[in-house]
Amino acid sequence: MNRLSTEILVIGGGVTGCGLLFDLAQRGFKPMLVERGAPANATSGRFHGLLHSGARYAAKDAATARECIAENMILRKIMPHCIEDTGGLFIATPLDPSDYADQFYAACQTAGIPVAEISPAEALRREPLLTPDIVRAFTVPDGSVEAWEACRTLLESARAYGAQTMLYHEVTGLRLEKGRVAGAAARNRITGAAVTIEADMVVNAAGAWSGKIAAWAGCDVTVYAGKGTMVAMNYRIVNTVINRCAPPADGDILVPVGTVAVIGTTSVRVANPDDYPIEPWEIERMLVRGAEVIPSFKKFRALRAWAGVRPLYQEKQAGPDLRKVTRNHALLDHAALDGVENFVTITGGKWTTYRLMAEQTADIVCRKLNTHRPGQTARTALVPEKKRKYHTLGARQEKVETGQASGQLVCECELVTRSQIEARLAENRRSIINDLRRDLRLGMGPCQGGFCTWRAAGILHQSPTFSAAQANKSLVDFLQERWKGMTPVLWGAHLRQMLLDQGIYAGLLGLDKLPPELSGADSPRLAEIETEGYFLVKNEE
Amino acid sequence: MNKTDTIVIGAGLSGLMTANLLAQANQNVLLVAKGVGTPVLASGAMDVLGFQPVDSRRPLENPLAALDDFLAEHPNHPYRLAGAEAIRRGLAALQRITAACELPYIGGPEKNLHLPTALGAVHPAALAPRSLAQGDVRRGGRMLLVGFDELRDFYPALAAENLNAQKLGVRAKSVTLPLPAPVDGKMNITPIELARTFEQRAFRRRLARVLNPHLKGFSRIGFPAVLGLHHHPAVLADLESELGKTVFEISALPPSVPGRRLFEALRDALLRAGGRLILGGEISGGEITAGRVTSLHLETANRPKLLSARHVVLATGGLFGGGLQSDAAGRVWEPIFGLPVAAPAERRAWFSAQFLAPHGQPIAGAGVRVDARLRPIDGEGRPLARNLYVVGEQLAGYSWTAGRTGGGVSLATAIAAVDAIINR
Ligand SMILES: Cc1cc2nc3c(=O)[nH]c(=O)nc-3n(C[C@H](O)[C@H](O)[C@H](O)COP(=O)(O)OP(=O)(O)OC[C@H]3O[C@@H](n4cnc5c(N)ncnc54)[C@H](O)[C@@H]3O)c2cc1C
């Protein structure tokens, strides 16, 4: 059995865990992060992509609103490469409660959110597809955020300070010694090998799974999983984040992301954070709600749907104040709460407030370890190791137009060229199609990868590190993954397109008829095990 | 104006074949179609039955010999109505018509060709044009697969490695070259554009010169399917003599050049046989009165025009071809006559969990149910219109990817519909 040790062990590689790892490393600790999949594979990569201004919460929850606006301003400074300054609009339609707008405006001002009322005509000038029935409109500093790039930069920066990351390692239990947590047992999800990790302190940042982890130390943490479903439409219908000027409800936000627009979300409690199918009514509701703000909404095609699970912390009736630092997220010191030493849980919150959550957690860790090391993350710009400014369409279009990215267009929708894929491969020769999807948004546009996936597989195979079997496997995995996102929204023209794709991959190419050892069709998904994790297997072979 | 015997709606394989056979039987035939049909999306080869059981990965040798087993597992498949004899006759009819258009189809119903796909898998097909058929992997030997930098849908190295890994008795190698003038330096070239370029003699000469140093030791040279469009037989013959080797084509992603050639051959044959054609014409509706189709509405620029005929053949291609429509509420309908459609009741039952489901997606089997004479029926099995027939993908009961029966169904049901119309 593999034995490792570290000063502070962080469980969970969502944005909270990644942010915490960086914060601890910057304060001079030698932390280690264990994540059962790739970074941001769970909620942090399956969210709505909105950098909240806080306005949505202003009327009901001023504390959260204040946190959001403060963090919004900080993140714009420290990770500008991950944020698109779309701005946000709150619009009131005749369907919305008429007294809410004034209350909303006042609450935003109280919370310190820069809010301004504009005329309905001005709102329509900015976003011509909006319903002409707008009653009132307000601008706020919402934005959209690139989650994968952010988590990746956080991990890179943490590693630069000496932090370690164990991706594709699932924590299977906590080590308890005389009433204190002394580390964790984990399993390499690729090789199956068992690992034990000794640690002076363990932080549970496992999102919707944090209740399960805490229970291993005998601590009672109630975290419900709140499923939220989002639907991507085939067109960037708006350039601004559009919110309904009404108390938060299903399908009240439309976020422009790259070449598409995403509407969301629903909110349903589910029993199992690992299994939460998307229900047809959720899709239907998103389309109906979309049409309330954009009358032509249903004329656009729904491309894919996905869902994530919010960690919803349930406060116990009687408990010391400490257990809940704000009404938004929960930071629990289990020594005070349950008499279990060296163990802290951080859960709940928003993507937007990850940095604050990490900072408060690191403060507690310092206090428990009796050391004084102030956090600096609010003042530290996060710089990616390599300049990877692939993900904005504008940047790519500029390159294509100025001839810098000469070469074939592999993906027409997202303007990905062959030379970009090759550059990405040269940088990390282990990229598989799913990485290309994240980095270049390949296959994320309106056609959903029917053609470009095939091209990407062919190009990958030309790199010396890719065997045909690996190219086949990344093709199989990518198509299957895409399938999961598409089935909830397949009908009409989109269904027809899918039948064409079936014809291409089965009928024309025969991907389903390659021997399984060659296509990997019967083996576990590789797409998930990208980059580091994947090559863990190779190195150990 | 002379009276129309039969109007065929749809210019896919089944519609074009039905129209051709009726015209050859001296009927006055009118074919109306919105687009050019699905042949341009297909490989150009005719699948009758490629895999049995359908989840097997071993390509069948003899499709007809496996037909009974296949039908035992797929009792609602249109082959049950048409029968083995119609499959045979359909294949023979296609061979006869294409041979007359200098696009000879090779093969037969008792021996599948094993064609290499662009991925390097094996595609079992009963018939294929000579250029594709010459790629049959069972011919063995050493083959060189040629790709071009500018053609982004063909990756011969991947195909070669996959073919070799399967130990099929053929050894493949690949080479990828930049295209010579006049298309050199082009960033993207479409298959159709490249096929037209291949029709230039000077281009082929230049290509042969760059290729020659690579040819040693190979008995066959494979290209993506771009060897000419209208003058394909001459291009193929010339390239073979230029290179001194057997040359074959591999079908790649749509638009398919072999599919386009087939479409054009069948279209020209129809016109030669005296058939009439309205391409780009949409039939937006039809009337069924007292158990007969009495009129069809043809959309024109200003107003719908009424058409009528003694018989009407619906060859509109199902969900894929546009002959069926669907919506978010899980409804599937036939837009011209509002015929009853057999489809899974709820949208959540439309799909299997696997994208590459060996039995096909349940929704792909949606279609119109018919009687033994291919006439649409109601819930009790009674024909809804005595003079309306349904052929090809529009039929219920099969998904062509399951076992790969698409071409065979189109051909066999065309035969069955023609029999029903003419024996009346
Ligand atoms: C539908 C939806 C939309 C949202 N939209 C927004 C938005 O627009 N803006 C915004 O600011 N916030 C949004 N949020 C909230 C935000 O996404 C989450 O608050 C945030 O991502 C939580 O991050 P996390 O790191 O705490 O959890 P997660 O991202 O879930 O990370 C937990 C990690 O722990 C890992 N893990 C679990 N068990 C184990 C184990 N045994 N061993 C090892 N690892 C383990 C998981 O794999 C996972 O990666 C949204 C949430 C949802 C559900």
- Domain count of chain A: the total is 3
Count of discrete alpha- or pi-helical segments spanning 4 or more residues of chain A: 18
- Give the low-pLDDT segments of chain A: 318-326, 527-541
Strand content of chain B: 15-25%
Quaternary structure state of the chains depicted: heterodimer
Instruction: Characterize the largest beta sheet of chain B: strand count, sense, and whether it forms a barrel.
Output: 5 strands, parallel
Residue fraction in strands of chain A: 15-25%
The whole-angstrom Rg of chain B is: 22 Å
CATH architecture of the largest domain in chain A: 3-Layer(bba) Sandwich
- H/E element order of chain B: EHEHHEEEEHEHEHHEHEHEEEEEHEEEH
Helical segment tally of chain B? 11
Residue windows where pLDDT falls under 50 for at least 5 positions of chain B:
none
Radius of gyration of chain A: 23 Å
Helical content band of chain A? 25-40%
Helix content of chain B: 25-40%
CATH topology of the largest domain in chain A: FAD/NAD(P)-binding domain
Please identify which CATH superfamily of the largest domain in chain A we are dealing with: FAD/NAD(P)-binding domain
Mean of the pLDDT scores of chain A?
A: 87
Q: How many strands appear in the DSSP assignment of chain A?
A: 22
* Principal-axis shape of chain A: globular
The coarse silhouette of chain B is globular
